[in-house]
Amino acid sequence: MADENNVQNDETAGDAAKRRSTGYHMGTVDAVISVEEVTKQAKAMAVEVPLEKVQALAGNDPFVSLNNLRCGYGKMEIIHGLNLQVGKGQSLCLIGPNGAGKSTVLHAIYGLNTVMGGQIMVGQGAEAKDVSKLTANQKLKRAGIAYILQDKSIFPDMTVEENLWMGGFLMETPAMAKEAAEKVFAKYDRLAQRRKHLAKVLSGGERRLLEISRALVMNPDVLLVDEPSIGLEPRFIDMVFEILDDLQRTEGKTIIMVEQNAKKGLEFADIGYVLVSGELAIAGSGDELLENEDVGRLFLGG
Question: Span 24-38, mean pLDDT?
Answer without folding.
Answer: 59
